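Problem: given the chain below (288 residues), write out its structure.
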Amino acid sequence: MGESKKSYEMKPLEKMNVIDDFLFNEIMADEENGLEVCRMILICVLKRKIGKIHYTPQKNVPGISEDKHGIRLDAYVTEINESPGGEEEDINVYDIEPDKRVQRKAALPRRSRYYGSLIDSQLLETGIDYESLPNLVTIFILSYDPFGRDAMYYEAGTILKTHPDEPYDDGVRRIYLYAGGELPEGAGEADRNLKRLLIYINESIEGNATDDNTRKLDEIVRRTKAKKDIGVKYMKSWERERELIEAVREEERQNTEREHQRAERERQRAEKAEKRIQELEAMLAAKS
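Solution.
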């Protein structure tokens, strides 16, 4: 009971961090703020200049059929880099996913795989060659260590397993960022910039706004928290989440109860069968 009440406690809005779903979504809902934060994250993660970007917050991607699982992307970003002559475009697609739900840790690699599959299914039109498929980078910003190595930066990609020295570029990168992880050995200023950004995203307090990026982000966070009616939106969002959690728990409780009832019926059938066997054995013994 105590655990249930604890899970329903409403975190004060002023204590919310960028990694929290509600605050991140509210920041992304403002186009100017969303573009600035997406650009900031991409520059720090990729350690390069970023071209022209467009983004879609809370992008829903349906399953491949009505009975298949769809997904919702926190921030879906498209980067377009034009060639010097302006005739060709190099397109990169990014999925930025803040996540602090450690209970989903074990499923993270397969979740990333599924997200990438559905995103790819939306990117190639009929009759277009596979070489036109854009690069896809999934970026998870995590409050927990996904692989237990205490590292700030993990990256997964596809390799030719039998010949790992042979290049195999399918255009897919999966980046996992642990806010509490250690900087890599020989880290430079770019790594430290990323570390400071991750610390602020995970714990969005003024004391963690220690450079230009995090101070800009802190200003955005303050403006977002001060928006008119945001308290009402937060309350409604929290109520919806609580109702959803309660519905899931009730479904789990009913499933558990059905399993117990099924197990009890099986036990009773087994007892009856054992009793019948004993009666038959007793009859046979009496006849002999």
